Amino acid sequence: FVPRRDFLPRGSGIVTRRPLILQLIFSKTEYAEFLHCKSKKFTDFDEVRQEIEAETDRVTGTNKGISPVPINLRVYSPHVLNLTLIDLPGITKVPVGDQPQDIEYQIKDMILQFISRESSLILAVTPANMDLANSDALKLAKEVDPQGLRTIGVITKLDLMDEGTDARDVLENKLLPLRRGYIGVVNRSQRDIDGKKDIRAALAAERKFFLSHPAYRHMADRMGTPHLQKVLNQQLTNHIRETLPSLRSKLQSQLLSLEKEVEEYKNFRPDDPTRKTKALLQGWKILMGAGKIVIVAFVPVQMEFDEKDLRREISYAIKNIHGVRQVTGLFTPDLAFEAIVKKQVVKLKEPCLKCVDLVIQELINTVRQCTSKVSNRPR
User: Fold this and answer.
1) Is 64 left (phi over 0), alpha (psi -120 to 50) or beta?
2) How confident is the model at residue 221 (pLDDT cuts 50, 70, 90)?
3) Predicted model pTM
4) Which domains does the chain possess?
5) Which residues form the Dynamin-type G domain (predicted)?
6) Torsion of CA 225, 226, 228, 231, to 10 degrees
């Protein structure tokens, strides 16, 4: 008998409002711990669920707000494989409560941060009672994994499809084929969860569903949550084996870079005046560099004008100055010159003010950079 643990919050609407990084670690004893309260070991998994909900609310508030700041949870158990899973929010289109107007794009950006990593497998979860072609999960997966090399399709809610319909073509990988295929699962309903339906009973009901359904019974051994776990284990192991060489190479180059940086600090003395001078000079370099960029970027401002219109305007100005007297001369009268130039100078005002605004913004950014560097060296 392997105990099944139930600790992820479930409910209607958007429940996962922060990414949950779940590390499963093989251990002789079973307990859980959070990174934000590492001193406490949880053995009651109902308390784990409550802590996930409480920690979500601490950062996002209690009115459906979201945050990209992850919750880190480690579960130690003799019944798990060493595996890291990331539970991400589902995409929501219409904001509710304290959610921002651009919530759809914020959640998409949050998801892309995690699924863009080449070392990760993507579980693209789609309910069976919606059109697969409209699946946000598959659409996002395709953006970062166009060849489908690391995407596994998961079809849920097969028991909620309209009578007379089924997802056989999808599960047989015929409709929108994926290299790693699709796996169907039947999870507990919200009523089952509220009624505290045992996970083992839910797995038995899932197995019975696939064995008894005429469209799925021929593939029952390739469906269900236990099969998904097995496939994940196998495919993730293979995927890690394939990506490990490039990951090792990347880590080695980062290590060399860090070792080189550490060398400079081996004989570090904070009171050494040369250290302080060097740090200050580096700060000034940033400041001067940014200023230089701004000045260079905005020196070549070109004014657009129509030469014919300008000549016509000069002619009118001269006539206005001379009035009815038909006086001709080699030079443009001072008053006419002044009137024309004033008009042209006014045109410079807007780009100059824009330039000033941009310079101010650049300086603010630079001062922030300098401040952050100086705050790391309080002495």
Assistant:
1) left
2) very high
3) 0.60
4) 20-252 (3.40.50.300), 276-373 (no CATH)
5) 1-245
6) 180
